Amino acid sequence: MASSSTVEPRMGRLPWSARISAVIVAALVLPGSAAAAATVDVYPTGGTNTANPATQISFRGATKLNSLSVTGSKTGRHGGRMVIHPDGHGVSFFPDHSFAYGELVTVSSATKLTRADGSGAVRFRILTPPVSGDRKYLDGKPSGDPEGDPKEAQHFHSRKDLRPPDLGISTRLPGSSNDDIFLAVKSGPGQNGPTIRDAGGRLIWFKHIAVPDSPYDFRAQTYRGKPVLTWWQGKIYTGKGRGHGVVLDKRYRTVATVNAGNGFAMDQHEFQLTPQGTALIIAFEPVRYNLSPAGGPRDGTTWDSIVQEVDVKTGLIYFEWHSLAEVSVRLGTFPIRGRNPYDPFHANTIAVLDNDHLLVSARNTNALFDINRHSGRVVWRLGGKRSSFDMGPGTWMIGQHDAIPHGDGTITAFDNGGSTRFPDMPDRPSRGVRLGVDTSAKTVSLVHEYHHPGKQVFTRSQGGMQVLPGGNVFVSWGGGQPYMTEFTPSGDVVFEASILPAGDDTYRAYRLPWHGRPVRRPDVIASTGGSRTDVYASWNGATGVRSWEVLTGDSPGSLHSAGTVSRTDFETHIVVTGSSPAYVEVRALGSHGQVLGTSGVARPKRR
């Protein structure tokens, strides 16, 4: 049993673009907006010092944008094209050519711009790349993965290409969730891939992701009102990723591929869809930066954490935020070591606080940040150095992940604890926490904490905590730890499972409902000899299959039913007795006997 106290449950592109002159954009009126001009938000925000040379300039909340001028201190005035955002509430300017490294970009308009200086202009600077001597720390091969075919992995007759890690359930009690389990298994020795399992641990769907790519953050979400599957896929370089997001519909067809914008690469830590058809994502970019405030070189190399809101359909940028512009490198908790790239912030979670604010978790500061979505300014810091709050007993987190705000004023997170080896931090085990946050009194209290029931778990990275409908809590214990545990609101363990074989893990795990019906037909394979035919049937991704009907015959056109058996697992073994058939087919049946899908016709192998 874990220590406990009460918790509450968690709560089409517009076909228009226009060329503009090298200097001026005449009045641009966005549809559906009032003519009275409020301040227009600009991204990159004023004061950003690490924008990408390939950046677009995004304007949000515009009702009228007058006399736009874009000038680089090295490249001069820029012409380009304007593209209206699909939601009708913004527009992006795409320069005709890239900006230069290190130059200052000035954006001016007769329209009032957020974070404009005294002259009414917004100014941001383009990044400077790392010095050549630091490249050896940034280049190289992606992180290794000993993917193979261990005996503990699952093997199927009908899908020999799939060898997913198994899930061993040690505890499943009444009161545990009936929702499915979502894993993005990685790190070997089994096959990598997004995986769905039912409440009893039976495989529903698996997609093999071949090395050197890895899958992260796999879950069911909603995109434009419809259920979808999402995950990040790409290569990992020392804890940071370069890849893309994948969105599938319930037929397992690709709906969208999501990339970071403005010349950056999407990182694996976060892929959160919004009701507005956008995605909140993270990118990391190495830049040359003055690290002397943190005791480092003036021309050091550091990682900039970048938060973007990307329109899924078009890739247009609605929001962009840079940690180096808003958070001092002094707030990083690790010491600078020689010419190694410094990572003072390390964003790993983005969540929506409200329409005007985002909550960003920064692992390497031990803190959470409230970010104003309009200005990009930090509203408050929770934890770490210079916390804006009076932190009550048990509320300090170390290297936290998966920070989620809730409607009752609490925030939940996975607290990695002292195993992350942060300087001057106590060595204590990982836990899930729920914090009471009073933003008026600026106090934080511990509402609840959850520890692994069987042993002290020390997780250096990754991990998640999900509040389920009804109040139960699902904790995934992070990188290098195959465990996941479901607790009741009072802290009793009602579910415990681990990924098999040892060595496989998942960045986060989720419990979510899912209903899938693949485009691909069910799979069947059979062998026959004497008076017995062994038939193996499966349908990767199908939910609602209750039984399998076997049809046999001497020709594909003369098949007849040889019997029906209940579905037993991902693959069901069916024995047909009697004379050896020349052809076999299977039908997947639903709870009322209705046909959900029919396989192709197979010829049994003689044995």
What does this structure look like?
With 607 residues, the chain is mainly beta. It has three domains: 17-128, Sandwich (Immunoglobulin-like); 166-512, 6 Propeller (Neuraminidase); 523-606, Immunoglobulins (Immunoglobulin-like), CATH 2.60.40.10. It is 1% helix and 44% strand. The protein contains one helix and 45 strands. The protein has a five-stranded antiparallel sheet, with no helix packed on it. A five-stranded antiparallel sheet has the order 12-36-35-34-33, with no helix packed on it. Strands 28-32-31-30-29 form a five-stranded mixed sheet, with no helix packed on it. β38 and β39 (532-538) form a beta hairpin.
Write a concise keyword list for the protein shown above.
disordered N terminus; Neuraminidase; mainly beta; 1 helix; 1% helix; 45 strands; Immunoglobulin-like; 607 residues
**Which radius of gyration do the C-alpha atoms yield?**
27 Å
The CATH H-level homologous superfamily of the largest domain: Kelch-type beta propeller
Residue share in helices? under 10%
Secondary-structure arrangement, i.e. CATH architecture of the largest domain: 6 Propeller
Number of helices: 1
CATH-assigned fold name of the largest domain:
Neuraminidase
Q: Write down the domain tally.
A: 3
- The structural class is mainly beta
Number of strands: 45
Instruction: Give the end-to-end Cα distance, rounded to a whole number of Å.
Output: 53 Å
